[in-house]
TrEMBL record:
One of its GO terms (molecular function) is DNA binding. InterPro entries: Transp_IS110-like_N, Transpos_IS110. PANTHER family: PUTATIVE TRANSPOSASE FOR IS117-RELATED (PTHR33055:SF3), TRANSPOSASE FOR INSERTION SEQUENCE ELEMENT IS1111A (PTHR33055). One of its GO terms (biological process) is DNA transposition. Residues 8-93 form the Transposase IS110-like N-terminal domain. This is Transposase.
Length: 97
């Protein structure tokens, strides 16, 4: 079983990827275009974090079709990717007040 040392959260929209990397209690943020070039820049940015691929968990909401290309690029590069149902995320937030 792998140990997750860092989490990458991505807020996906038609034009942008707003990314947060949480590791060791610190957050690093980045904003990139939601395009093939942006996806490549994301992979390079994550690589600079020095975490092994199996030590990272990447999570994003399923936003129409806009998340599909970046989720596929990350998965094809060997990252563990979770795509959350936005209704579930909203429901969890409401349950936490």
């Amino acid at each position: 079983m792998n140990t997750i040392n860092a989490v990458v959260g991505i807020d996906v929209s038609k034009k942008n990827l707003d990314i947060a990397l949480l590791a060791d209690g610190k957050i690093k943020k980045k904003s990139l275009p939601n395009s093939a070039a942006g996806h490549q820049a994301l992979l390079e940015w994550i690589a600079k974090s020095k975490f092994e691929k199996d030590a990272l968990q990447v999570c994003m909401e399923a936003t129409g079709v806009y998340y599909e290309a970046v989720a596929t690029a990350l998965h094809d590069a060997g990252f563990m990717v979770s795509v959350a149902n936005p209704s579930c995320v909203k429901g969890f937030g409401q349950s936490e007040n």
